[in-house]
């Protein structure tokens, strides 16, 4: 493959990544609207879905929010019925936050079709191609997380 073709492909991939990010953002906005919550609430519900029950402090750390902001967020999503505070069975002094069945049902309703289509689409790739995709996405995610951390650590000017 010639260098010019390769360079053009690099640009095309970069353009598609940005377009993909915009499409994901639009989907998340539509889902948040449908659920009657804001994007930060949705992001925290996603963290609970991916990581399982956690304390409010752990959720604050994972989301980059203050503990006060997480308390207000939890009050909102608990009132709507998407999360609940429960005692930790291993340590009754700890309170965990977990998704409710309603939140799981709504997530399946709204994200399920795209998850199924995405899974079906991935089955057409070989194991080596899937490893390449996984490694690329993992590296891109880490790059974004590191940049976000750096921006948060810098004072606003």
What does this structure look like?
The chain is mainly α and 157 residues long. The chain has one domain (3-124): Winged helix-like DNA-binding domain superfamily/Winged helix DNA-binding domain (Arc Repressor Mutant, subunit A), CATH 1.10.10.10. 75% of the residues lie in helices and 6% in strands. The protein contains six helices and two strands. Strands 1-2 form a two-stranded antiparallel sheet. A hairpin with a 7-residue loop joins strand 1 and strand 2 (95-99). The protein starts with a helix and ends with a helix. The mean pLDDT is 95.
List strands and helices in order, with pairings.
Blueprint: H1 3-35, H2 39-51, H3 56-63, H4 67-80, E1 83-87, E2 95-99, H5 101-122, H6 127-153
Antiparallel strand pairs: 1-2
Helix pairs in contact: 3-4
């Amino acid at each position: 493959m010639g260098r010019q073709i390769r360079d053009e492909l690099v640009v095309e991939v970069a353009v598609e990544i940005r377009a993909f990010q915009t499409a994901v953002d639009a989907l998340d906005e539509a889902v948040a609207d449908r659920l009657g919550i804001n994007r930060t609430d949705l992001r925290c519900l996603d963290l609970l879905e991916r990581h399982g029950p956690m304390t409010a402090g752990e959720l604050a750390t994972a989301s980059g929010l203050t503990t006060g902001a997480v308390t207000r967020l939890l009050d909102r999503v608990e009132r709507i019925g998407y999360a609940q505070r429960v005692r930790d069975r291993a340590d009754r002094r700890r309170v965990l936050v977990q998704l409710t069945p309603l939140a799981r049902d709504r997530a399946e309703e709204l994200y399920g079709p795209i998850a199924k289509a995405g899974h079906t689409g991935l089955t057409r790739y070989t194991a080596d191609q899937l490893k390449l995709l996984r490694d690329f996405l993992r590296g891109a995610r880490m790059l974004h997380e590191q940049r976000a951390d750096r921006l948060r650590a810098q004072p606003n000017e």
